[in-house]
Structure prediction request, 355 residues.
Amino acid sequence: MRGSNGREALVPALGIEMPAAELLREEEPEVDFTGPPPWGWRKAQESRSLRAEIRVLAKAKNAVILAHNYQLPEVQEVADFVGDSLALAKNAQGAAARLVVFCGVHFMAESAKILNPEKQVLLPNLAAGCALADSITLESLLEWKARYPGYVVVTYINSSAEVKALSDICCTSANAVSVVRSVESRRVLFTPDRNLGRWVAKQVPEKEVVVYDGACPTHDVLRGVSVGRSRSSHPEAVIIAHPECREDVLAMADEVCSTSGMIDAVARHPEAKTFIVATEWSLVYQLKKRYPDREFVLADGCLGCRLHCPYMKMIDLEQVKRSLWEEVFEIDVPPPIASGARRALERMMAVPRDR
Prediction:
């Protein structure tokens, strides 16, 4: 099968008579945002053709395609489910599919495999890592736990399976506050994101929260003064920010929430016409799809699109197609590690979102 590129060869090879175009959604809303160059380069017809081929493959192979909100817009369009880490973890667990193609980064595909040990989980590009997840290792967590005996370890989902397995419970940005509130202990070690951890600690003053010194470089680069420039140009705008941003940015925000929470936040401000978005730029695609009558401004008033995650842009349509066609690259987690990590993830999933 390697090397076949044409839909004409693809469909008969899989025994499918249905034209590939018929597998695309009947109504695809036009969104005037495919991303800044060079990430929005593909022509609409070329993208549509590739997505049609991918949908044929997904149907033939009984596969579900998951895409994070930070993926390229064209990848979001071909996915069965688009969302944040918490939503996608639940989608992976609930999908009645043999294959799970995870368009995100390595720790997300790893979590999907942990929650679905009987399914084949594929990551279209093994280079799609996460600088935040890399900031904490098994060794550094062991050292940290030794320094703070008796503390409950709450680990952000942006972490390796090994780190999750050593943790008491995981969280996402969508339920971090609720998770910390849910633990019985008053003493908590929060890892690895310091910005999210500090924000959570302020929401839960009754707990003693010790925060690990890791950060997402995509969010950590943003400064309040840059957001202020955007606000000066749009004084009536509502600012929505991801809690991985620095404290000075979060202090300016009207809403602090996960990526999916940001989408919901727009509905809570029906009077607002403009929103300043302090997170990775690809979320704007979903926002424009859901709210075509609103204006969304990237928070970085300096360069306009500095909030760019290179890891989240390592998967494109060609790689999704190859992943399905050749069933690469399979993610696996050793059973002893998977068992501990599954416990921490399932505890996380039992806690509701913060809002």
